[in-house]
Design goal:
single chain, transmembrane, transmembrane helix, globular, Glycosyltransferase RgtA/B/C/D-like domain-containing protein, about 675 residues, membrane, two-stranded antiparallel ribbon, mainly alpha, 5-stranded mixed sheet
Length: about 675
């Protein structure tokens, strides 16, 4: 009998050890993050890396959680009524914040103190946004610095209002305000110039334009791999045809509005399911202010924009308390839709769902609990099989499938994956910036981990297995997304993972932001602190060059403008019709020709796309062709354009053109066949 008991205790020992480690995983993660940040700084100091900012960010994020855990979240000074020390994280750090600060228990019969002050705050919110819109409307192709400050003030006011609901029905009004300010930000960028914007957006808009005119998907010669992934173009073409608008407005309706409404609604619902309405609302607000989300939602649309919407739907359905066959059908429909939308983001969604499922299974087995809401293994298996099947039959060229190309890509990554180097992938080419410019330019990848690290550590510490699952899964995915570029590997394009990871991590971030102000005893000081935090978060996010290429606030000498004036669009339409040979243009102008040049038909686009070439600004190509049209834009003498620095894909540096290039055409053996508002068209004189 004693032998059996000893055997049982020996068998239970590993389980208890693992459970103990899981209970302390947030502390382990915080200490690991601090050590990792120190290692990154040391490697940067000795010249292996150049990532001082990343190392410092990891340290600050990790240490901030450990400090708040010590003094607020898991304080050992709190005592139970019987005098025993409280150690349960859910008691010390309750799932919902104190209602005295955030929620009245019953708002039906409670009068909100100083309600007139909140009405004044609503008036200020509306006035600030209206004034910002007036500034935008009265400025031609620019947005004054005051515009960005006003948007940040309005965002901060809304954040404070979210933290203190005014009535039972305030959630709906808050959602409408979030949608309103999100639309103001995106439309202000999108309609600052008459053209669409984004390096990828011109290609997608052109395919959608042809689809709307011909009423069927363009062939592989035009659509390329998107012949098998047409959902984005179908949505845009439909939004263009039904209301009878142009392609740019169709993009705003299909993607701009869709990427605001759908993720906002489902992130709020997910936050309400896992925490409460306040966390869901703040998560929806911060999500819409994040620059990588704005990039994918409007400033550079890709097929991944649709995936982002579907992913937010899937996350909510996965964690929805009540399950039904209707929910299962909608879940499967979203998965099928993602599969035929985009390859890379489909892989990221599958990876995220696998992490969530495996982590959830492990936690529930460890705690011997019934699984609350992980993705169904059957659905996940079907998702994986569907992806592999569809990838195996999609073509990248006339002879190779995507599946075959993927195998070659893995082999290439193993042999030559680190060719780019960490600095080039993460911060890009090195430019000389001022301190404030450096802070803002690099903030697009620094501020996210700065808030995500303590947020996911907070959720990892939770006794709620669903929150712990999201915390662990998000942490693993962020390690992959930021770790692969540190190895110099570009193949997986982890920068494009970030919008999906933000959707997964924004609720932990919101939870951390709210709980981080709880140690402050004064309610007024809490409100001021929240206002300042959200103000600077939004100001940094909406002023980064990534979403202000048309109107850069900082780094103007190195930011490539990707929106174009009426004269630049008209030059494309005119010169593309008079030229029969190749057209050589600067790389920043390339997409404009794809969208606005030639006839908007399959034959017209197919003929034009095969003739567009990048202008050899370095003079390496000495080949002379007499039927080639050369297009020069005078603005490129002071505006930078991408100039390739090596044979590596995407390795370019943003610099203005030299006057020698213009003089070469002006003084050389060339005919000036087009000239309008600083745009010149040349061809070589005949022999």
């Amino acid at each position: 009998m004693d032998t059996d008991k000893r055997r049982l205790s020996v068998l239970q020992l590993p389980h208890e050890t693992i459970k103990y480690i899981f209970d302390k995983l947030d502390i382990i993660g915080g200490l690991f993050g601090a050590v990792l940040g120190i290692i990154v700084i040391i490697l940067s100091f000795i010249g292996v890396l150049g990532q001082y900012y990343i190392g410092f960010t990891i340290i600050v994020g990790s240490v901030s959680y450990l400090l708040l855990r010590q003094y607020n979240f898991h304080s050992n000074q709190i005592k139970a009524e019987n005098g025993n020390q409280i150690t349960d994280p859910e008691i010390l750090c309750p799932r919902k914040p104190p209602r005295s600060f955030l929620y009245p228990k019953n708002t039906d019969n409670i009068s909100i103190p100083n309600a007139h002050k909140w009405r004044i705050l609503d008036v200020i919110f509306c006035f600030v946004l209206i004034f910002a819109q007036i500034l935008w409307y009265t400025s031609d192709c620019t947005r004054p610095d005051l515009y960005f400050i006003l948007i940040a003030i309005a965002s901060a006011i809304l954040g404070v209002e979210i933290a203190i609901p005014q009535s039972k029905g305030s959630a709906l009004s808050m959602l409408l305000k979030i949608l309103y300010i999100s639309f103001i930000i995106r439309s202000g960028i999108f309609f600052n110039y008459p053209s669409v914007m984004g390096s990828d957006a011109f290609t997608h808009a052109s395919i959608a334009e042809v689809l709307s005119n011909s009423h069927f998907i363009p062939p592989f010669e035009i659509s390329g791999k998107y012949f098998y992934y047409p959902i984005l173009h179908i949505f845009i073409a439909t939004a263009k045809i039904i209301p009878g608008v142009d392609i740019k407005t169709g993009i705003l309706i299909a993607i701009g509005l869709g990427s605001i409404i759908i993720p906002t609604l489902f992130i709020y619902l997910l936050g309400k399911t896992l925490c409460d309405s306040q966390i869901g609302l703040l998560g929806a607000l911060l999500f819409n202010l994040t620059n990588v989300v704005i990039v994918r939602g409007i400033t550079n649309i890709t097929a991944g924009s649709v995936t982002l919407c579907c992913f937010s739907i899937i996350l909510y359905f996965v964690y929805r308390d009540k399950k039904s066959y209707v929910i299962l059908a909608l879940l499967i429909t979203s998965i099928v839709l993602i599969t035929i939308t985009h390859q890379l983001t489909t892989f990221v969604v599958l990876l995220a769902l696998c992490c969530i499922t495996l982590t959830s299974k492990g936690i529930n087995n460890l705690n011997k609990e019934k699984n609350k809401a992980p993705p169904s293994l059957i659905v996940l298996t079907l998702f994986g099989v569907l992806i592999l099947f569809y990838w195996s039959i999609t073509e990248l060229s006339s002879a190779n499938s995507f599946f075959e190309a993927m195998v070659r890509a893995v082999r290439s990554m193993a042999l030559e994956g680190g060719a780019y180097g960490a600095d080039k992938l993460i911060v890009g080419q090195q430019y000389h910036y001022t301190a404030i410019e450096t802070l803002i330019v690099q903030s697009h990848y620094l501020i996210i981990p700065l808030l995500v690290i303590p947020g996911i550590l907070l959720w990892i510490s939770s006794k709620d297995s669903r929150k712990k699952t999201i915390g662990i899964s998000t942490g693993l995915l962020f390690i992959v997304a930021y770790g692969i570029p540190l190895l110099g590997i570009r193949t997986l394009l982890t920068g494009r993972w970030l919008p999906l990871l933000v959707a997964l991590s924004i609720l932990p971030v919101s939870d951390f932001v709210i709980r981080s102000v709880q140690p402050i005893k004064s309610n007024k000081l809490k409100k001021i602190t929240l206002f300042v935090l959200i103000f600077f978060f939004s100001l940094i996010m909406i002023t980064t060059p990534a979403i202000n290429r048309d109107n850069p606030i900082v780094a103007k000498e190195t930011t490539v403008r990707d929106q174009f004036t009426h004269s630049e669009i008209q030059a494309v339409k005119t010169t593309s019709m008079i030229s029969t040979g190749d057209v050589k243009i600067d790389s920043a102008y390339y997409g404009t020709y794809r969208l606005y040049g030639g006839e908007q038909t399959i034959i017209g686009k197919g003929n034009l796309w095969s003739r567009i070439r990048s202008l050899d600004v370095l003079g390496k190509n000495k080949e002379v062709t007499y039927d080639t049209l050369y297009i020069l834009r005078e603005c490129t003498l002071h505006e930078p354009i991408p100039v390739r620095q090596s044979d590596l894909y995407g390795d370019s540096k943003n610099i203005p053109l030299s006057e020698d290039i213009f003089n070469h055409f002006k003084l050389g053996d060339y005919n000036l066949i087009y000239h309008s508002k600083g745009i010149y068209g040349y061809n070589i004189r005949g022999p």
